[in-house]
Amino acid sequence: MRDVIIIGAGAVGCTIARELAFTRLDVLVLEKECDVAAGTTGRNSAVVHAGFNNRPGSLMARLCVEGSRGMEALCRELDVPYRKTGKVLVAFDEEDVEILRRLKAQGEANGARGLRLIGKEELERMVPGVGGIGGFYSPETAILDPFKYCIAMAENAAENGAEFRFEEEVTGIRREDGGFTVTTGKGEYRCRVLINSAGLYADKVSAMAGVDDYHIYPCRGEYFILDEVADELLQMPVYPALKPGIGGLGVHLTPTVHRNIIVGPSAEYIDEADDYACTPPVMDKLWQEAQALLPALKRRYIIGNYSGIRAKLAPENEGGYRDFVIKEEEACPGLINLVGIESPGLTASRPIARMVREMVGKRLPLEEKENAVRTHRFPPVFAKLAREEQDRLIREDPEYGEIVCRCRRVTKAEIRQAIENPLGARSLSAVKYRAWATTGRCNGGYCLNRIVDMLVREYGMRPEDVTLRGPGSEMFSGEVK
Ligand SMILES: Cc1cc2nc3c(=O)[nH]c(=O)nc-3n(C[C@H](O)[C@H](O)[C@H](O)COP(=O)(O)OP(=O)(O)OC[C@H]3O[C@@H](n4cnc5c(N)ncnc54)[C@H](O)[C@@H]3O)c2cc1C
Hints:
Elements: E1 2-7, H1 11-21, E2 27-30, E3 47-48, H2 59-78, E4 82-84, E5 87-91, H3 94-110, E6 116-119, H4 120-126, E7 134-138, E8 142-144, H5 146-159, E9 163-165, E10 170-176, E11 179-184, E12 187-196, H6 202-208, E13 217-226, H7 230-233, E14 238-240, E15 252-255, E16 261-264, E17 268-269, H8 280-293, E18 302-312, E19 325-328, E20 335-339, H9 349-361, H10 387-396, E21 403-405, E22 410-411, H11 412-419, H12 428-435, H13 448-459
Parallel strand pairs: 1-2, 1-12, 2-9, 5-14, 12-20
Antiparallel strand pairs: 3-8, 4-8, 5-7, 6-7, 10-11, 11-12, 13-16, 13-17, 13-18, 15-16, 19-20, 21-22
Helix pairs in contact: 1-5, 1-9, 2-9, 11-12
């Protein structure tokens, strides 16, 4: 009998696991995919929102502002790449100016700091080349690496005793003897408190426990990934004025902590919660809208694409948003549901986790562990080190002297450390998001085979067992002559 089972290892589930792992509770996380951040957490804009997009008085608004304020220190604690860039929203006409004025008032009511309207000249100075007659500036907005955020949360939770089990899709839940029995494809687990943090499938997981009150409407957002052109073109995220009822924040341009620019997302309600397609008509429209914001964008900068899916509680005909649902279900004591955790769920993940921790505390004793480890460190990123430091590492470990990913200058030592990660994730994506290899312009053309070779020769995997993202994404079917 575990104290707590958390279903879902996205940013929210992992952050809850970390908060609870600081106590003496016995925590198990069940995740259907082969690694953390495999759902929406690994498919978003990676912006730490300042808190002006959400309705005053909503959970979204309160938790976003709280999350934004604590994020810089949290990322420092966990060694997660974070940069406070600020953000600009652009007005193209007087109607937009009015929208931005209202947004500023809303942000101030929520407690977002330093918001101000700016004129055309200041706009041009902040984001050269962006059209528009004026804008709105939020100095507190930031960007981070959502993969490393989630990995660091999980690794730190694991270091403090939380257990993570991957490829364990929860398929059934029974309530019995003051607790729950949770069934996965691999076995049964029992717990006193059950936390449903299953993102796009939270409605289905809740229904398994007998609470069939929710329906999630998947709403897809498609993105382009541009090359490392952010330093030249864009110092901070640029958004259009937020139009009510479009179901997203509009197509925006966002620099990443890795100096790429991402363009998107679109907003399109779809039928299946796992349909991550990028479709030509939507992508064409996306590009047109992006160029309207920043005419200097060139198609030749595009190096990839992806999509993410919003877990919306509001159907298409309702547009806009409904608030997060975070509560212990009266009809099912011990079940804590997190449903409709769409944007700004990444920003708000720690305040969400702390709210859940309090709920757990009403059922189970929350005794702090005396020896809990609160900081986390990733292995060094070789390409970012000073020359002397690089030389020292190469002397200590010659595998630092061998470049495996040429685009991102990732060394063999870093690939090895990524493969040997504490959570035991061994897919190519697990290596990609930890070492950031295969993410450059050649899309893994040079390094992918070398990484597979390491998995096969040095870690004894059969080529047929190497996957991109777990079972069903095998890359090799057998030997050729
Ligand atoms: C297009 C887009 C842009 C966004 N941009 C931002 C942004 O810039 N800033 C921001 O703050 N937020 C943003 N968000 C929102 C943010 O990404 C989410 O709120 C956040 O990632 C939600 O985390 P989660 O852990 O709740 O869900 P997820 O990351 O989806 O995690 C849920 C996990 O549960 C697992 N799971 C599901 N069913 C089962 C089951 N039956 N058994 C076991 N495991 C299961 C899934 O595999 C998944 O790993 C954006 C979202 C989208 C879609």
